[in-house]
Amino acid sequence: MAKGADVVIIGGGIIGVACAYALTRSHVKRVVLIERGGLGREASRASAGMLVPQGEAEAPGPFFDLCLAARDRYRTLADELRDATGEDIEYSRWGLLYLVDPAEHEAAKGRAAWQRAAGLRVEELSGRDVRALEPILSPEIGGALFFPDEAHVRPCTVVSALAAAARAGGAEILEKVEAIDFILDEDRLRGVNAGGKTILADTIVSCAGAWSGRLLDRIGHRLPMEPVRGQIVRTRFERPPLTHLVWGPLGYFVPRLNGEVLIGTTVEQAGFASTPTLAGVAGLCEAARAMAPTLMTAPFDRVWAGLRPRLADGLPAIGRFANIPNLYVATGHYRSGILLGPLTGELIADLILGKKPPFPLDAFSPDRFAG
């Protein structure tokens, strides 16, 4: 017998569980999320949890505005999820030291200028200033931009807290259930075939990450999606050796409250292979050596990898296809999934409920790749 739902969400990474949470928070009763594996086991796992739109952005524009709004949302989300679930996502506004390669000095000054003009906080630091903040960093570092409002969270806890809050709101979350195909009826979808069953739905949201392209191909909507493998190495100290996020030309450090330090990340076109490699570990260790040579005496703790979904233009797809009005897409967030996840969920919920989003989403329309 076919099962019914108001909304079916395909994909249980940060984007999918954020959609489920936002919909249940808006009192949508019958929300079903299906995930082919375990929650947050792909791109969400490959994230270090940085909320750093100022560090990531090369220029102002709609994507930068979206990322700033997403960073701001976390300021209230941490307490909201703690109250709802008891889980601490470890939201920490430690600021980002963006190390400047001498060859990029003028570009860094330009970045600082346009961000200040936008009303954002940014400081230009000398090498001496950098080491006063973080003595462990290499004496070879000549300077940095400091973004004091950048932050980080623990990604897997964000995923589990959003899922728990969605379940508490009535969502049904099914793991190890794969969406095989859509059920299409003229210009609308009637549901999905998943796990040997048919789930009928008024609305469907595709949040399947790197697998979104394969699924949407089946109804003639091709998204130019590629999986990008990211590897992260973890080391551990009795207490954090750093008090800021650090981003260098070859990699980054993310310190955690429990003394862990994450070293990331690789950017690899390796198809759907998500296994860590010796080459990846070696490259990350070299990045760590360049930024903080004394860190190389730290014990090796763990390495992991995941597949991040990247669209051809580097921007996410958030919205619906014009010719299938009850199919929404939220995918292609690439390196910004943890940052953008909670806000994306709220934007999708607004669209489904017929509310006007707080800012234009034209730049992220999935129809931009049509033809």
Automatic annotation (TrEMBL):
Annotated keywords: Membrane, Oxidoreductase, Thiamine biosynthesis, Transmembrane, Transmembrane helix
GO BP annotation list: thiamine biosynthetic process; thiamine diphosphate biosynthetic process
EC number(s) reported in the record: 1.4.3.19
InterPro entries for the chain: FAD-dep_OxRdtase, FAD/NAD-bd_sf, Gly_oxidase_ThiO
Pathway: Cofactor biosynthesis; thiamine diphosphate biosynthesis
Superkingdom of the organism of origin: Bacteria
Molecular function terms, GO-annotated: flavin adenine dinucleotide binding; glycine oxidase activity
Enzyme class: oxidoreductase
Keyword Transmembrane helix: yes
This protein's record includes keyword Cytoplasm: no
Domain FAD dependent oxidoreductase: 6-351
Bilayer-spanning residue ranges: 7-24
GO cellular component, one term: cytoplasm
PANTHER family: GLYCINE OXIDASE, SARCOSINE DEHYDROGENASE-RELATED
Protein name: Glycine oxidase
Top-level taxonomy: Bacteria, Candidatus Methylomirabilota, Candidatus Methylomirabilia, Candidatus Methylomirabilales, Candidatus Methylomirabilaceae
